[in-house]
Structure formats: C-alpha cells, structure tokens
Input
Amino acid sequence: MKSKIISALIILFATLTANAQDVIELKMPKSNKIVIKLMFRNGSICDPKGKEGLTELTTSLITEGGTKELTHSQITDKIYPWSASYSASADKEVSIFTFEVPKVFLSQFYPIIKGLMLTPSFTQDDFDRVKSNQQNYVDQVIRASSDEEYSKKALEDFLFRGTNYQHLVSGTSQGLKTITLEDVKSHYKNFFSRSNITIGIAGDYTPDFLAKMKSDMNALSPVVPVIPAPAKAKMPDGINVEIVSKDNALGSAIFAGFPIDITRAKDDFAALMVANSWMGEHRKSYSRLYQKIREARSMNYGDYTYIEWYENGGGNMLPAPGVPRSSNYFSIWIRPVQTAKGLKGQYPELSDISIGHAHYAFRMVLREMDNLIQKGMTPESFELTRDFLRSYMKLYIQSPERQLGFLMDSHFYGRKDYIMEMDKLLAKLTVADVNTAIKKYWQTKNMDILIITDKTEAEPLAKSLRENAPSPMSYSNTLKSALSNDILEEDKVVEKYPMPVKSVKVVSSDETFRSTEATKDSKGVLKMEK
Amino acid sequence: MVIREIELLFYFRLLIQTNQHMKKIITFITAAFLLLSNAFAGNNTDEKILPYPIHQKKLANGANVVTVPYDSPGLAAFYIVIRAGSRDEIEPGHTGFAHFFEHMMFRGTEKYSKEKYSEVLKSTGASANANTSEDRTLYHMTGSADKLETMFEVESDRFQNLKYSQQDFKTEAGAVKGEYTKNSASPYNQLDEKISETAFKTHTYAHTTMGYFKDIVDMPNQYDYSIEFFKRFYRPEYATIIVVGDVTPERVEALSEKYFGKWQHGNYVSSIPQEPAQTETRYTHIQKSGFPPYLSLNYKGPAFDDKAMDMPALDVLSSILFSEKSELYKKLVLDEQKVRFIQGGAYDTRDPNLFSIGSSLVKAEDMQYVKDEITKTLEAAKTKKPDAQVLADTKSHLKYSFAMNIDNPTSIAESLSHYTWLTGDPESLNRLYALYDKVTVDDLVRVANKYFVGTALTVATISPATEVGVK
Output
C-alpha cells in the first residue's frame, strides 16, 4: 500500500513537470526523413487483473485501426506513395508509437498521426481482427515457432510469478479472451493521457511543427493514471528448474536468471557491463561461455549472458531501444543443445545414453560464473573488454531512429544520454571496480532455470537434475577423437561440478501462458505491493 | 548464420521468426525500407537512386573494390562478398557446405590463431559476423573508421591463408548442427526445405542453404572437401570488397592493393545443373496442429536481371497485388478476416527461382477458398491493366522506401552487397530502380501471363490435416 502512495506521488510529480511537456529533440539538419516517437509510461504492468494483454491490444488497435476521418484502409492508400510507416510497441513499463516519413511529406502525414493518437476509430471490426491475431500469438505462435524465444518468455513467467511482471506483454490466453472493445476504449482514456507522454522527434523539422504537435498532444485524455509499481522478482530460494515438455523438439532450449538490483540508472552499470561482455556478450565469439560451450565443444550455436532485457535476441545483433525497465534481472541464454533422442539417432555409439547435453552445459555455466566471481577479471581482459565496449556501444545508435530511441530510454532512467554517459563511466573504470561489482551483483546459488525440451528428454533430465547426478559429455567418436586432452580432462571436472537443485518441475507446453491466476499465490500478490 | 535475401525485420507479431521464404516475400513489400528523397525529389529519372557515387576499382587479380563515402563521422562498414553459396553445392552429400565453410573462416591462420583473431576483432570494437545464402557468402564488420587498416589486415590474412586443423574442423560442425537445431523449431523452416526440394529437381536450389540434417551430421568427415572448397571459391575473382562511411576511395583502394593485391587468382567455375521446365502442379504438406494454418503458392520466376523488364515488372506487380494496399489484402485480411496476413514477391537470385505468395489463415477449412481467391487475382492480372495512378503510386512507394532506409553505413553496404552478389556490379542497384521507372501496365500484364502458370506451380501447406487438401 505504501508503494502505491509513493507511486501516486511520483505520478503527481511527473504530471506537474509534464505540464511543460516532456520533449526529446534530435536536430538533424541533413536528414531527409522525420522520426517521431511518442512514449507513454504505461506498459503491460498496467493490464488489469484478468485482462492481461490489454495495453498491447490498445496500442495495436490504435495503429491497426483508423481515425475519425479515415478508415485503416484509407490511411494505407494515402501513405503508400510516400512510404511513410508507423508502428506501436508495448513492453512491461512503456508503450511507444513510432512514425517515420520522408521530410517532404511530413505536413501531409501529420494529420494522420494526430488522428490516430487523438481520435482513433476503435471499430468492432478492427478490434476483432487485432485481438484474434494477438490471441493467436499467445495460444499458438509463441509455443511453436522458436523454442529459444519461448524459453526466454517462459523464464520471465517463472521469475516474476505472481507479480505484474509475470505475464507476456501480449497477455495470457484467458486474459485476452475476456477483453472487450469497451475495455480498450477505457484503457486508452485512462492510460494514454497527456500526463504520461514523452514526445521524441528527430530530423530536419521546424520549431513551428514541434510547437503544433506539442499543443495537439495536450488534447490527449486529462486523466492522471495510477500506474502500479513495477514488481521486483523475488530472489529464488536455491536453484529451481522448470522443464517444459513438448512434442518433437530437436534440442533443449535454456534460459536462466535471477533478479539484480541495478539498471542503467546506476553508475555501477558500466562495471557490470564489462563483466557481462567478457562472460557472454550477445552474439560475440570472444566471450567466455561461447568459447567454452560452442567453440571448444561444439555443443550448440551460442551462449550469452545479459544484465537487462534484450529484445528479440534471435534476430537483433545490436540491442534495440524502446524496452526500458526498472525491474531487472541477470540472465543466461544457452541456445538449444542436443537431446538424448537426437544424439542416439545420429551416432550408434551413443545408443546407451539417457540424457542429452543440457545438464552438462549448465554445470559449465555455473563453474565459469563461480570462477569469475572468485577470481575476478584480469587487468588485460578488463582493458580489452572495456575498450571494445567504448567503441561498440556507438554502433547502437547508427540510425536516427535508434539514436532517438536510446535518448528516450535515457530519459526513462533519469539520464540525458546513456551512450555518452556510459562512455565516460567506462573511461574512468578500473578492474577493481568491475570485480567489486561482480561480487556485489552476481552469485550462483539462487536462480530459476527454464528448459524447453522434447517429451522424451524431460523426465530423465529432471531426474538427473534432482539427483545432482554426474552428467558426462556424450561426444560422437569422431568428435571425441578430435578433442584435446585438456578439454577431456576439464570435462571430468565439469561433469561432477556441484549443481544443487532445490526443485524441478516438468510441465506440458499446453500449460504455459494460460493465465496468471493458476500460478498466483497470496505471497506473490503481497510482494507486488511491497 | 544462414539467411536468404536481405535480413529482415520482424513482420508483425504473427511470426516470431519468419522463414526464409517469408523473409523474401516480406522483403519486397515492407522491407523495401531502403533511399533518399533528393534523388528524385524533382522527378528527374536520370538521377540515380543512390544519391552517393559508387567508386569501383578492379585489382589486377580480379578482386573488385567498391567505396562509397558517406557522412558517418568515425564510422565505416567493411563488407566482403564471396559470390559462392549453396547454389555451388553441386556434389551429392555436401548440402549446407558453403554455410559450414563460412563458420570455418573463423578458425584462424598461422599468423592469427582463432584466439588471436578473436582478440584483434574485439580490439576493433566492431560489430562483425558473416552469413550465407544461395548465391553468396557475406563477411561484414562495422566499426571505427580509424581501425580500417586492422580490419583489412586480419580479413586479408584469413581469406588468403586460412589454416585449420582436422580437430577444429570436426568441432565446428557441431555448431552448425546447433544452428539447424535452433531453426528446426519453426514449421516455416521445415516447409522451406520441402518447397525447395519439390519445386526443383535438378538445380541446386532444390536444397536450402542450411542443407539436409544428414549431410550436416556427416560434415566432420569432409575435411578434404573443405580444403577443395576453399581453393575453389576463396579467390579474388569471386570477391568484392565494399567499404561505406567515413573513408575515401584513395585510402580504401590503397589498403585493398596492399592487403589483397597478392591474392592468387583461381580457375574454378561451378557448373550448375539447370532446372528443366516444370510441367505439372506439385504439392507438398506439413501436418501440424497447434500452429496457424499456412498456404504457400510458388510459381517459377525469372533470374535477377538489371537489364530485362521481367523482374522489375514482377516487383511492381507483387506490390500492387499483395501489399497492404492491395484489393486482395483488404478483402481477405480486413473485410472477411479469413487471413492473418498475405504477402507475395519474387526471389532475387542469380538463376531462376520462385515467385512466392504466402498466407497465414485463421481457419484451415478456408484453405481452398483462399487459394481460389489468390488464383482469381493472378488470373485477373493477365487481362486487367492496373490503373495508371496505382502504377505511379507503387513506383513512388518503392523509391521512397529505399530512401528511408539508407540512413547509416551498414544499410548502404547491405544494399550494395545485395546487387553485387546478384550481378557482380553494385551499379545494378541504380539500374534496377531506373527500370522501375520504365515499367508500363503492359509489362505487368505480360509478366502475369508469362509466370503465373498452373503447370509451373508448387503448392505448399501447413495444417492439422494429414495431406494438402487443396486443389
């Protein structure tokens, strides 16, 4: 309850300052296009209980519907020759509308932007279509397209169980079914209001244009929304594993994590960024886990770690803007490793194995994490990694759209320019700072692990994990003959590396993302309000 | 990494990862996010679509060097295109090898072991990777322009002096298997494999760039073939070096000469078996419940060509027939709500490939209806000339889409690479867009008659049914 009062006060304060309107400007006199981003502080944590998915459905209906003047179809026709585009994205704590248009068509495009934001048509037909697509995503697509993305989202459901951060931004199966058009209309009025908008603009626009847009956006709903406090994940008690069993999975997809009390807002973030980059920089061959699991042992396609949410890791090579979060967790991504069924089918010499490579892979992760926590980074590794990041981060903002997006996210974290400020922090960082941050934020005793795997692998793997049984690597004869003695010797240590698992639960794929009610308990609900 | 065509952004939420066919389809309709308005602000069709000059210099050994200076202070994108891909996998049992070889390129040389290579790469602070598709393998890095010489040095070393042990070779094969494993979760990837092998019987487009799983499992035993593969294709006559950003042609050309000038010319030319004309409608199907029903119609299309009118006309026509502005989209997606999305377009490849139309359905029982509606649209295109304004709007859309996307060195380099691997000449980009301007309504009718032919069609479906279930 206390937090509600505090958050109400924060909102009130934000409202007072927002009267002057929050605007992020990026003047680019040479640019031939205009990018506009409208960010609202109202992500899926604002979904009412039992109507999970409402925020995203509202944003989608705004961009996939029409305006008071034009139907969706008429808008498509009108903007087609200009190749103007727009889209909406919702996340846990923000919803963002992005518009891009060649500069020469800005004045013709603007009435459509204004119409979509201020007078969306919200027709029953558009609602039915958009809701059906969202329901289809939650019911079918997420479960049956990429086991990697599935495991990532299911981990979040596991880590944040019983809180407003648990459910998919797209909602739950049950929640979506109950949402009506009236719900969308009222959610729009209550949460997409002038008091919680930040306006972002990049390109060669005129001051008059910006002034008009600012003035128009003041016609958004005057409601001051009550934004719930973003839930913090509860630190898991020991290592807990959830295995999702599905038909015909060729591999075991793994995501694991534990909450960390740090975001981009804290200066320590720079130190943790260096440690994370060394251990598991996204899609980079020079990080530790990648070298141990993929490069030396050929177990999978890649292995990475994260100190904040990384949108669409399967597709993005560089982090995307637009997903700022105040509730954070450390995560480990082990891309699909082989199952026993798969290995047996590939190599006759492995016909007697009972589990695939998941148990071994995770032991390797724990050992590498423990080593880093105990020994810290070397000065040489630190220098190389820090210098890498100082250059690499500048690639995050190659295009105007990304540059504007990162600036708006900076604002969310109370920073002016995250990329430039991190560069300064990185410049003055020492190896001691990094090693202190590692000890402060990382540990291996408490975490949740989520594994999506074939139904033939689920129970044997669960048994192996429960019993903390040795998990020797099962190489084909050809590969084994190619591996150095050092690797085989290291395997003997890793296969027995202590991995005390407190609980293992096997669930069917059909049971995931149904609703939040089934898994909610009073403890979890209480936690949400702390 | 395996990709087909320009790496694409997500389509909307219906798909987590689009399959390779969808990627191409979507490429054309939505991802033509590519150009700059000043190139045609005055409707001057003599101006090139890329508003920056493309500097080219061919080295004596045949390697081509392409430089496009671009205002991105301190940044440069450095790309190397090798015009060999899964199309060149002509020997049986070696499907997926071009892609596997792309992985081997990261396994070191005598001068730079794989560890040293990684360390140097890391020191450049670049975003670097590689990917393979049917016709080419692409190596890329974007980073500080002041690290350009280091990039040239390490890249030239591995392209000329790659040396890996049998051990490293056997080990890397597992990573490729891991890539197949992660991709296999998507039914679209599974369907992609089936479409390729159904539509093509002799050409190497019959297998995907990823290759067959059995060939991937056997890769550790193909060391000798890998040496042969390197000797064949990692040669200057197959290579184009592309640099875009805060650079000058003089500097890029001097660095190219210094680091790639001694690269030895080869003499291998792939003999790709040509596909005979298809004479009957073919079908393939995946039975899958718990997944949105999917219908894919694949007609045999033309090869990419920057001089003939067929491909530009098909590109324009696919936008008119299947984009969100199209009548069919509005009928099936917006009005009737029987379809979640529909997309259509032709593949850009060196040899004739497919014109694909893909559609995700709300209900499997509408499969025949949706197929009939698509077929009716294609038949109508054979006689009905589109409105002149629609044609003009589509041309405008294509150009502005391009203009909107080239706002950073990486996307310009991607675009130049695309046309380089298709024809060997990045100027094909400018030529293609010049041809778009010349497309007439008669061209649209002509290509519809030429390519939308039932005997050249492969129908592919995903549904809970045991077989195709559409005629």
